[in-house]
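Bench log. Compound arrived from synthesis this morning; before running ITC I wanted a structural hypothesis for how PBG sits in the protein. Inputs:
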Amino acid sequence: MEFPATRLRRLRSTPAMRSLVRETHLHPGALVYPLFLCEGEGVRREIGSMPGVFNLSIDEALKEVEACAGLGLGGLLLFGVPAAKDEAGSGAYAADGIVQRGLRAIKATKASESLVTIADVCLCEYTSHGHCGVVARDGEHYEVENDSSVALLAQTAVSLAEAGADVVAPSDMMDGRVAAIRAALDAAGKPNTPILSYASKFASAFYGPFREAADSAPQFGDRRTYQMDGANLREAMREIEQDIAEGADMLLMKPAMPYLDVIREARQRFDLPMGAYQVSGEYSMLHAAFQRGWLEHERAMLESLLSIRRAGADFIVTYFAKDAAKALG
Ligand code: PBG
């Protein structure tokens, strides 16, 4: 046999050759950009730990909607930073809540027609204690109650759908919320609103910067009794199975880069459309390195997104969405 008949470098020789044989692609239509809506007018408050990400009043958010549509992004994911919080997180399901008002304003624009407007469904930005559900206290001991939380989450989902959300995305990790949300949407005359379930969401240190952005850090304890243990891949598959059985239309895997193996396994087992959330801490750590000149901004950003697509995600929620679309353009 001659010296290698196969020379894999033959197909790497030029940009055109590499483009022809590329297995995984990034495109703006598969990127979703998160927006943090706050009260006021003309407000554009940068998040300290997330350069280029802002709390935006609704008028400022509309400018972002225009920009996102112009870049050909696939969608928006909306979070609320309310002026006031209470024990029951009532701002999450108020008809005039910050996201509900934002949705009405966004959906009234021409630009929003090309974007899928997804509303995050959770209580943590709206509760005074910062937990994702209802907290029952007994002296030192506290419990995040499941079933009473699910009732409020279902009410939140209906309220967001009625305000115009194209998709509702529960991120709380209570048991049974997908079934309850489906039943509530159907009963409210919203049988065609899809549920994007954060099916396997891990209790992660990488949500730290988000909690600054959304002012949603728990005031006591942590989220480990409801979000998943990062060590468990099989349990993640059980969470997904359960959500599919309850009526989830799409899955969202989260975080992304520290859990690429979980995304891969889910892709192999399940046929639902699946997204992955490149969360705040993933964005912040890359930016910290960009600021020091330790990593090349554009290349590292695109490589991080490509890794998530290669693992099997159809779409990616990312704070890099606009930058990536520009780089790809
Ligand atoms: C709400 C929610 C969180 C994120 C998305 N939805 C925070 C959390 O669970 O503490 C995190 C997103 C990010 O870090 O970018 N429950």
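What the model suggests: DSSP finds eleven helices and twelve strands in the chain. Residues 120, 122, 124, 132, 171-172, 207, 210-211, 279-280 surround PBG (CB under 6 Å).
ITC booked for Thursday regardless.
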